[in-house]
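In the design runs reported in the main text, the only information available to the sequence generator was the tokenized backbone. The following block is the verbatim input for one such run; it is reproduced so that readers can re-run the procedure and compare outputs position by position.
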């Protein structure tokens, strides 16, 4: 029985690590949604909301790097790994499109990359939820 106990403890630990990853992915997704909401408020209501938009990305962008390390510490499917790996890349592109001054205004890609980032983040939450909360076969 003690041999099975070690396996059960490892499975429980992996499960809790996956739940923690899922919670962090949800938090990242909620920060993105809040950031999109704040840019809408800044554009259509009051430009003071722009500060929240900037503050949010500075606050949660590090979470994408934490998720990137986390996804490779325990076994996750390759699709979850690639979704997670793409988030810091897209955040970097977001930064570049705003701060690089080029003859062609790269900032036109900023909302498109943001949409991709939100889509990938939402897909990551969805896929991870199926890993953390698998449906039981109901006969």
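Verbatim output:
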């Amino acid at each position: 029985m003690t041999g099975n106990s070690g396996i059960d403890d490892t499975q429980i630990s992996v499960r809790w690590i996956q739940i923690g990853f899922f919670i962090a992915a949800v938090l990242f997704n909620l920060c993105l949604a809040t950031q999109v909401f704040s840019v809408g408020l800044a554009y259509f209501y009051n430009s003071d909301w722009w500060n929240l938009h900037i503050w949010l990305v500075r606050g949660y962008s590090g979470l994408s790097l934490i998720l990137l390390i986390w996804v490779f510490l325990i076994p996750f499917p390759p699709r979850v790994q690639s979704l997670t790996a793409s988030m810091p890349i897209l955040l970097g592109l977001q930064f570049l499109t705003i701060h690089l001054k080029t003859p062609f205004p790269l900032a036109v890609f900023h909302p498109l990359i943001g949409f991709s980032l939100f889509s990938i983040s939402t897909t990551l939450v969805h896929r991870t939820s199926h890993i953390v909360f698998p449906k039981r076969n109901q006969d």
